[in-house]
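Fold this complex.
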Amino acid sequence: MDFAELYDRYFNKVYNYVRYHVRLAAEADDVTGRIFEAALRGYETYDQARGPAQGWLFGIARNAVTDWARGRNRRGEVSLDDAPEPEARDPRLPDALERKEERERLLDAISRLDERSRDIIALKFSSGMNNREIAGLTGLGESNVGIIIFRAVKKMQADLEGEKI
Amino acid sequence: MNETEQAELFNKELDALLRDGGTPSASGDGALRLASSIAALDFSGESSVKASLRARLVPAGEGLTSLLRGLFSNNYARAAFAAAAIAVALLPSARRQPAPVPQPGVVAQISAPAPLGTPLPPPEAFTARLPSALRGGGSSGPMFASLPMGELRGEPIKAPVMELNSGSRTERQGGTAMIFETGSGTFALERREVKPEQIFEMRTL
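Structure:
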Protein backbone atom coordinates (compact mmCIF):
# COMPACT_ATOMS: atom_id res chain seq x y z
CA MET A 1 0.00 0.00 0.00
CA ASP A 2 1.49 3.35 -0.97
CA PHE A 3 0.86 6.59 0.87
CA ALA A 4 -1.86 7.75 -1.53
CA GLU A 5 -3.80 4.56 -0.91
CA LEU A 6 -3.32 4.91 2.84
CA TYR A 7 -4.63 8.47 2.69
CA ASP A 8 -7.67 7.62 0.62
CA ARG A 9 -8.55 4.62 2.73
CA TYR A 10 -8.16 6.18 6.16
CA PHE A 11 -8.70 9.93 5.88
CA ASN A 12 -12.42 9.78 6.77
CA LYS A 13 -11.81 7.40 9.64
CA VAL A 14 -9.00 9.47 11.08
CA TYR A 15 -10.98 12.69 10.68
CA ASN A 16 -13.99 11.14 12.42
CA TYR A 17 -11.74 9.90 15.23
CA VAL A 18 -10.39 13.42 15.67
CA ARG A 19 -13.89 14.91 15.70
CA TYR A 20 -14.84 12.79 18.68
CA HIS A 21 -12.19 14.74 20.58
CA VAL A 22 -12.07 18.08 18.75
CA ARG A 23 -15.48 19.58 18.20
CA LEU A 24 -14.61 22.46 15.89
CA ALA A 25 -14.20 21.43 12.27
CA ALA A 26 -11.36 23.89 11.60
CA GLU A 27 -9.34 22.60 14.53
CA ALA A 28 -10.07 19.01 13.54
CA ASP A 29 -8.74 19.83 10.06
CA ASP A 30 -5.57 21.18 11.61
CA VAL A 31 -5.03 18.13 13.82
CA THR A 32 -5.82 15.73 10.97
CA GLY A 33 -3.31 17.54 8.77
CA ARG A 34 -0.64 17.08 11.41
CA ILE A 35 -1.47 13.39 11.69
CA PHE A 36 -0.99 12.74 7.98
CA GLU A 37 2.13 14.89 7.84
CA ALA A 38 3.61 12.79 10.62
CA ALA A 39 2.45 9.64 8.84
CA LEU A 40 4.18 10.74 5.64
CA ARG A 41 7.41 11.44 7.52
CA GLY A 42 7.32 8.04 9.18
CA TYR A 43 6.01 6.07 6.23
CA GLU A 44 9.47 5.29 4.87
CA THR A 45 10.45 3.58 8.09
CA TYR A 46 7.06 1.94 8.68
CA ASP A 47 7.36 -1.83 8.30
CA GLN A 48 4.12 -3.33 7.02
CA ALA A 49 5.19 -6.75 8.24
CA ARG A 50 5.01 -5.54 11.84
CA GLY A 51 1.27 -4.91 11.74
CA PRO A 52 -1.59 -3.37 9.85
CA ALA A 53 -1.30 0.25 8.80
CA GLN A 54 -4.52 1.01 10.63
CA GLY A 55 -3.02 0.45 14.07
CA TRP A 56 0.12 2.39 13.18
CA LEU A 57 -1.87 5.34 11.82
CA PHE A 58 -4.26 5.50 14.76
CA GLY A 59 -1.28 5.38 17.10
CA ILE A 60 -0.09 8.59 15.44
CA ALA A 61 -3.61 10.01 15.65
CA ARG A 62 -3.87 9.32 19.37
CA ASN A 63 -0.57 11.09 19.99
CA ALA A 64 -1.66 14.08 17.90
CA VAL A 65 -4.95 14.39 19.78
CA THR A 66 -3.13 14.14 23.11
CA ASP A 67 -0.70 16.86 22.00
CA TRP A 68 -3.60 19.04 20.90
CA ALA A 69 -5.36 18.64 24.27
CA ARG A 70 -2.14 19.39 26.18
CA GLY A 71 -1.48 22.46 24.08
CA ARG A 72 -4.97 23.75 24.66
CA ASN A 73 -4.64 23.28 28.40
CA ARG A 74 -1.19 24.91 28.42
CA ARG A 75 -2.48 27.97 26.61
CA GLY A 76 -5.32 28.18 29.11
CA GLU A 77 -7.89 28.26 26.37
CA VAL A 78 -11.51 27.79 27.23
CA SER A 79 -12.84 24.57 25.83
CA LEU A 80 -14.79 25.18 22.70
CA ASP A 81 -16.69 21.97 23.09
CA ASP A 82 -19.74 23.91 24.19
CA ALA A 83 -19.42 26.56 21.51
CA PRO A 84 -22.16 26.49 18.92
CA GLU A 85 -21.18 24.87 15.65
CA PRO A 86 -21.37 26.96 12.49
CA GLU A 87 -24.68 26.91 10.72
CA ALA A 88 -25.39 23.98 8.49
CA ARG A 89 -24.81 24.63 4.81
CA ASP A 90 -28.50 24.57 4.12
CA PRO A 91 -30.34 25.08 7.38
CA ARG A 92 -33.66 25.46 5.63
CA LEU A 93 -33.80 21.75 5.10
CA PRO A 94 -35.58 20.24 8.11
CA ASP A 95 -33.88 16.86 7.66
CA ALA A 96 -30.44 18.41 7.73
CA LEU A 97 -31.33 20.39 10.84
CA GLU A 98 -32.70 17.32 12.52
CA ARG A 99 -29.61 15.30 11.68
CA LYS A 100 -27.42 18.09 12.94
CA GLU A 101 -29.29 18.29 16.23
CA GLU A 102 -29.10 14.54 16.64
CA ARG A 103 -25.38 14.58 15.89
CA GLU A 104 -24.78 17.40 18.37
CA ARG A 105 -26.66 15.53 21.05
CA LEU A 106 -24.53 12.45 20.48
CA LEU A 107 -21.30 14.45 20.50
CA ASP A 108 -22.38 16.19 23.69
CA ALA A 109 -22.96 12.83 25.30
CA ILE A 110 -19.58 11.57 24.10
CA SER A 111 -17.84 14.70 25.39
CA ARG A 112 -19.24 14.02 28.87
CA LEU A 113 -17.42 10.68 29.03
CA ASP A 114 -14.08 10.49 30.78
CA GLU A 115 -10.99 10.82 28.58
CA ARG A 116 -10.18 7.12 28.37
CA SER A 117 -13.76 6.04 27.63
CA ARG A 118 -14.09 8.76 24.97
CA ASP A 119 -10.91 7.57 23.29
CA ILE A 120 -12.03 3.93 23.31
CA ILE A 121 -15.45 4.88 21.91
CA ALA A 122 -13.79 7.02 19.23
CA LEU A 123 -11.52 4.15 18.22
CA LYS A 124 -14.34 1.62 18.26
CA PHE A 125 -16.73 3.63 16.10
CA SER A 126 -14.33 5.42 13.76
CA SER A 127 -11.30 3.23 13.16
CA GLY A 128 -12.98 -0.05 12.32
CA MET A 129 -10.64 -1.89 14.67
CA ASN A 130 -11.98 -4.73 16.82
CA ASN A 131 -11.58 -4.90 20.59
CA ARG A 132 -8.39 -6.96 20.36
CA GLU A 133 -6.72 -4.42 18.06
CA ILE A 134 -7.87 -1.54 20.28
CA ALA A 135 -6.46 -3.39 23.28
CA GLY A 136 -3.13 -3.76 21.47
CA LEU A 137 -3.05 -0.06 20.66
CA THR A 138 -4.06 1.22 24.09
CA GLY A 139 -2.26 -1.34 26.24
CA LEU A 140 -5.50 -2.45 27.90
CA GLY A 141 -6.84 -5.98 28.09
CA GLU A 142 -9.33 -7.06 25.44
CA SER A 143 -12.09 -7.82 27.97
CA ASN A 144 -11.39 -4.52 29.68
CA VAL A 145 -11.92 -2.71 26.39
CA GLY A 146 -15.26 -4.51 25.99
CA ILE A 147 -16.41 -3.48 29.45
CA ILE A 148 -15.34 0.15 28.91
CA ILE A 149 -17.35 0.28 25.67
CA PHE A 150 -20.38 -1.30 27.35
CA ARG A 151 -20.29 1.10 30.30
CA ALA A 152 -19.69 4.12 28.11
CA VAL A 153 -22.66 3.37 25.86
CA LYS A 154 -24.85 2.70 28.88
CA LYS A 155 -23.80 6.02 30.42
CA MET A 156 -24.52 7.88 27.20
CA GLN A 157 -27.87 6.18 26.98
CA ALA A 158 -28.73 7.29 30.51
CA ASP A 159 -27.57 10.85 29.75
CA LEU A 160 -29.62 11.11 26.60
CA GLU A 161 -32.71 9.63 28.21
CA GLY A 162 -32.28 12.07 31.09
CA GLU A 163 -32.22 14.94 28.60
CA LYS A 164 -35.54 13.84 27.16
CA ILE A 165 -37.15 13.87 30.57
CA MET B 1 -26.24 -12.24 34.20
CA ASN B 2 -23.38 -10.20 35.64
CA GLU B 3 -21.83 -7.11 34.03
CA THR B 4 -19.01 -9.00 32.35
CA GLU B 5 -21.44 -11.36 30.64
CA GLN B 6 -23.66 -8.46 29.63
CA ALA B 7 -20.63 -6.65 28.20
CA GLU B 8 -19.57 -9.73 26.24
CA LEU B 9 -23.04 -10.17 24.78
CA PHE B 10 -23.31 -6.46 23.98
CA ASN B 11 -19.93 -6.41 22.24
CA LYS B 12 -20.78 -9.50 20.24
CA GLU B 13 -23.99 -7.85 18.98
CA LEU B 14 -22.17 -4.56 18.43
CA ASP B 15 -19.47 -6.22 16.31
CA ALA B 16 -22.15 -7.90 14.21
CA LEU B 17 -23.88 -4.54 13.82
CA LEU B 18 -20.69 -2.75 12.76
CA ARG B 19 -19.72 -5.59 10.44
CA ASP B 20 -23.08 -6.05 8.74
CA GLY B 21 -24.23 -2.44 8.97
CA GLY B 22 -27.78 -3.35 9.96
CA THR B 23 -30.15 -1.43 12.22
CA PRO B 24 -31.41 -2.98 15.44
CA SER B 25 -35.16 -3.16 15.85
CA ALA B 26 -36.89 -0.37 17.71
CA SER B 27 -38.06 -2.81 20.33
CA GLY B 28 -34.53 -4.13 20.90
CA ASP B 29 -31.87 -3.03 23.33
CA GLY B 30 -31.71 0.77 23.66
CA ALA B 31 -27.93 0.70 24.10
CA LEU B 32 -27.55 -1.14 20.84
CA ARG B 33 -29.77 1.38 19.05
CA LEU B 34 -27.65 4.18 20.48
CA ALA B 35 -24.51 2.39 19.31
CA SER B 36 -26.05 2.14 15.87
CA SER B 37 -26.62 5.91 15.85
CA ILE B 38 -23.01 6.55 16.88
CA ALA B 39 -21.76 4.20 14.17
CA ALA B 40 -23.71 6.21 11.60
CA LEU B 41 -21.93 9.44 12.52
CA ASP B 42 -19.74 10.69 9.71
CA PHE B 43 -18.15 14.14 9.92
CA SER B 44 -15.77 13.71 7.02
CA GLY B 45 -17.96 15.83 4.73
CA GLU B 46 -17.21 18.82 6.96
CA SER B 47 -13.49 18.66 6.37
CA SER B 48 -12.27 21.50 4.19
CA VAL B 49 -8.72 20.20 3.80
CA LYS B 50 -9.24 16.69 2.53
CA ALA B 51 -8.48 17.49 -1.12
CA SER B 52 -5.86 20.18 -0.54
CA LEU B 53 -4.01 18.11 2.06
CA ARG B 54 -3.94 15.19 -0.33
CA ALA B 55 -2.60 17.39 -3.11
CA ARG B 56 0.12 18.67 -0.79
CA LEU B 57 1.18 15.34 0.71
CA VAL B 58 0.53 12.65 -1.83
CA PRO B 59 2.81 13.83 -4.68
CA ALA B 60 5.70 13.89 -2.24
CA GLY B 61 4.75 10.48 -0.95
CA GLU B 62 4.35 9.03 -4.40
CA GLY B 63 7.52 10.60 -5.71
CA LEU B 64 9.78 9.31 -3.02
CA THR B 65 8.35 6.57 -0.89
CA SER B 66 6.25 4.67 -3.35
CA LEU B 67 8.99 4.82 -5.96
CA LEU B 68 11.50 3.27 -3.57
CA ARG B 69 8.98 0.79 -2.24
CA GLY B 70 7.97 -0.22 -5.73
CA LEU B 71 11.57 -0.55 -6.79
CA PHE B 72 12.71 -2.70 -3.91
CA SER B 73 9.59 -4.81 -3.58
CA ASN B 74 10.46 -6.68 -6.79
CA ASN B 75 13.30 -9.20 -6.75
CA TYR B 76 14.14 -8.68 -10.43
CA ALA B 77 14.22 -4.92 -9.95
CA ARG B 78 16.46 -5.36 -6.92
CA ALA B 79 18.87 -7.56 -8.92
CA ALA B 80 18.86 -5.05 -11.80
CA PHE B 81 19.60 -2.22 -9.40
CA ALA B 82 22.51 -4.17 -7.90
CA ALA B 83 23.89 -4.94 -11.36
CA ALA B 84 23.62 -1.29 -12.36
CA ALA B 85 25.41 -0.22 -9.18
CA ILE B 86 28.25 -2.65 -9.86
CA ALA B 87 28.53 -1.45 -13.47
CA VAL B 88 28.75 2.16 -12.35
CA ALA B 89 31.41 1.25 -9.78
CA LEU B 90 33.52 -0.58 -12.38
CA LEU B 91 33.10 1.97 -15.16
CA PRO B 92 36.22 4.07 -14.39
CA SER B 93 38.53 1.04 -14.45
CA ALA B 94 36.90 -0.22 -17.66
CA ARG B 95 37.72 3.06 -19.39
CA ARG B 96 41.45 2.79 -18.63
CA GLN B 97 43.41 1.11 -21.42
CA PRO B 98 46.67 -0.73 -20.84
CA ALA B 99 49.71 1.32 -21.76
CA PRO B 100 51.33 0.10 -25.01
CA VAL B 101 54.78 -1.43 -24.80
CA PRO B 102 57.16 0.94 -26.65
CA GLN B 103 58.94 -0.56 -29.61
CA PRO B 104 62.71 -0.18 -30.05
CA GLY B 105 62.35 2.12 -33.05
CA VAL B 106 60.16 4.50 -31.14
CA VAL B 107 62.57 4.66 -28.24
CA ALA B 108 65.41 5.61 -30.58
CA GLN B 109 63.43 8.62 -31.81
CA ILE B 110 63.12 10.18 -28.37
CA SER B 111 65.27 13.24 -28.31
CA ALA B 112 67.68 14.07 -25.56
CA PRO B 113 66.85 17.03 -23.28
CA ALA B 114 67.90 20.38 -24.55
CA PRO B 115 70.89 22.03 -22.87
CA LEU B 116 70.22 25.00 -20.62
CA GLY B 117 69.76 28.23 -22.51
CA THR B 118 68.14 26.64 -25.53
CA PRO B 119 65.14 28.82 -26.47
CA LEU B 120 61.75 27.11 -26.20
CA PRO B 121 59.90 26.53 -29.46
CA PRO B 122 56.76 28.63 -29.98
CA PRO B 123 53.46 27.24 -28.57
CA GLU B 124 52.31 26.38 -32.08
CA ALA B 125 55.09 23.81 -32.26
CA PHE B 126 53.54 21.88 -29.35
CA THR B 127 50.10 22.05 -30.89
CA ALA B 128 51.43 20.85 -34.21
CA ARG B 129 52.69 17.68 -32.53
CA LEU B 130 49.18 16.72 -31.41
CA PRO B 131 47.07 14.47 -33.59
CA SER B 132 44.76 16.39 -35.87
CA ALA B 133 41.70 15.19 -33.95
CA LEU B 134 42.93 16.97 -30.84
CA ARG B 135 44.10 20.24 -32.32
CA GLY B 136 40.64 21.81 -32.59
CA GLY B 137 39.64 24.37 -35.14
CA GLY B 138 38.40 27.19 -32.97
CA SER B 139 37.77 28.42 -29.52
CA SER B 140 34.68 26.27 -29.05
CA GLY B 141 36.67 23.03 -28.81
CA PRO B 142 37.63 21.37 -25.58
CA MET B 143 40.66 22.78 -23.85
CA PHE B 144 41.87 19.38 -22.65
CA ALA B 145 41.28 15.90 -23.91
CA SER B 146 42.50 12.54 -22.78
CA LEU B 147 44.50 10.61 -25.35
CA PRO B 148 45.32 6.91 -25.07
CA MET B 149 49.05 6.37 -25.31
CA GLY B 150 48.56 3.98 -28.20
CA GLU B 151 47.35 6.87 -30.36
CA LEU B 152 50.72 8.62 -30.06
CA ARG B 153 52.72 5.71 -31.42
CA GLY B 154 52.63 6.84 -35.05
CA GLU B 155 53.32 10.50 -34.38
CA PRO B 156 56.73 11.61 -35.72
CA ILE B 157 58.94 13.71 -33.53
CA LYS B 158 59.94 16.74 -35.50
CA ALA B 159 63.03 18.90 -35.25
CA PRO B 160 65.16 17.05 -32.66
CA VAL B 161 67.09 19.47 -30.53
CA MET B 162 70.31 17.45 -30.85
CA GLU B 163 71.60 14.28 -32.37
CA LEU B 164 73.72 11.69 -30.64
CA ASN B 165 76.90 10.98 -32.67
CA SER B 166 78.59 8.48 -30.41
CA GLY B 167 78.68 7.24 -26.84
CA SER B 168 81.25 5.39 -24.79
CA ARG B 169 81.89 4.16 -21.28
CA THR B 170 85.10 5.03 -19.49
CA GLU B 171 86.68 4.52 -16.10
CA ARG B 172 87.00 7.62 -13.96
CA GLN B 173 88.61 8.10 -10.60
CA GLY B 174 86.35 6.45 -8.06
CA GLY B 175 83.74 5.29 -10.61
CA THR B 176 82.61 5.10 -14.19
CA ALA B 177 81.25 7.60 -16.71
CA MET B 178 79.16 7.57 -19.91
CA ILE B 179 80.45 10.02 -22.52
CA PHE B 180 77.85 11.34 -24.98
CA GLU B 181 79.18 13.17 -28.06
CA THR B 182 76.60 15.26 -29.87
CA GLY B 183 76.70 17.87 -32.58
CA SER B 184 76.52 20.67 -30.04
CA GLY B 185 78.88 19.32 -27.38
CA THR B 186 80.16 16.45 -25.27
CA PHE B 187 78.39 15.44 -22.06
CA ALA B 188 79.60 13.10 -19.35
CA LEU B 189 77.33 11.21 -17.01
CA GLU B 190 79.46 10.11 -14.09
CA ARG B 191 78.76 7.51 -11.48
CA ARG B 192 81.09 7.64 -8.49
CA GLU B 193 81.04 7.86 -4.74
CA VAL B 194 81.32 11.34 -3.30
CA LYS B 195 81.63 12.68 0.24
CA PRO B 196 79.62 15.59 1.58
CA GLU B 197 82.69 17.78 1.95
CA GLN B 198 83.32 17.41 -1.77
CA ILE B 199 80.00 19.10 -2.42
CA PHE B 200 79.44 21.35 0.58
CA GLU B 201 81.80 23.89 2.11
CA MET B 202 81.97 23.66 5.89
CA ARG B 203 82.18 26.90 7.88
CA THR B 204 82.48 27.33 11.60
CA LEU B 205 80.72 30.24 13.23
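The domain at 1-78 of chain A is CATH 1.10.1740.10 (Rna Polymerase Sigma Factor; Chain: A).
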